[in-house]
């Protein structure tokens, strides 16, 4: 068996891929441009990918491929329907990044509500020393205790964020496809009107594309903070940027983008320098422990396939 990993550089440092060798030959590529995908997987039995797009264009001439393993929960970069037509199995990994993504979500909320950049800059600049005053409480900041945290999507990550937010004293409301009796579930308009913090944890589907748009932003509190750690296109990115520029909401934290990395023409470049904007480079999923967990799950997926078992299959 031959295993090919096409985009190792997107998986970060600290991972040991030697476990792949138990299955046979292994080829690791840091990055794979579109023009080289087919030639690199031409005789592969198993392909492991994170961000590389696999579709009819680059899979048509690949004859030995039996299994594609997504190094992620999302697999919108893989044409699953085409793989079905070719009898190519496709697997993903669920739940590996729950704690990592939830941690960054909470971090962004604390960062934005506590105005950390402004306060640390006051100290780093020497202005605190020069002031001669023991403390500084400008800009005003607020407790999360007693605030309403609206969660869009109550999957593994959404529920973990809910638990963390509850520990901080927040009241939880949720908009979710499958109602959860543990939480107050509301329609999207109600969530947008009532929530002080809104965090997005829903998959990208035709129904969720631009779920947060100018109409939804218009009914939010001016003090609201929006955090998107799901998929960039779940929010209308231009509308979000305009809401910040027009001071219609208080702040945004974003880790995901419709185009990654986003281009120089992207509307977020106009607001990236602002203290009430926290943009990170799609890193919420990637705590070392989460990535190790994901790799271990992929090994289990390959093992299950070779044993004739179905595990984490998304092509069924």
Spell out the helices and strands N to C.
Answer: EEHEHEHEHHHEHEEHEHEHEEH
Largest sheet: 7 strands, parallel
Tally of contiguous helical segments? 11
The chain-level mean pLDDT equals 97
Low-confidence region ranges: none
What's the SSE blueprint?
Elements: E1 2-5, E2 25-28, H1 37-41, E3 46-49, H2 56-59, E4 67-70, H3 80-86, E5 89-91, H4 98-114, H5 116-124, H6 127-131, E6 148-152, H7 156-167, E7 171-175, E8 184-185, H8 188-194, E9 197-200, H9 214-218, E10 225-228, H10 237-245, E11 251-254, E12 277-279, H11 288-306
Helix pairs in contact: 4-7
Descriptive account of the structure:
The longest helix is centred in the C-terminal third of the chain and has 19 residues, at 288-306. The chain is 31% helix and 15% strand. Strands 8-7-6-9-10-11-12 form a seven-stranded parallel β-sheet, with helices on both faces. The model has no long low-confidence stretch (mean pLDDT 97). The protein is built from eleven helices and twelve strands. It folds into two domains: 2-94 and 288-306, Rossmann fold; 98-279, Rossmann fold. α4 (98-114) packs across α7. It is elongated and about 70 Å long. The chain has 316 residues and is α/β, with parallel strands linked by helices.
Search tags:
15% strand; 11 helices; seven-stranded parallel beta sheet; 2 domains; alpha/beta; elongated; Rossmann fold; 316 residues; five-stranded parallel beta sheet
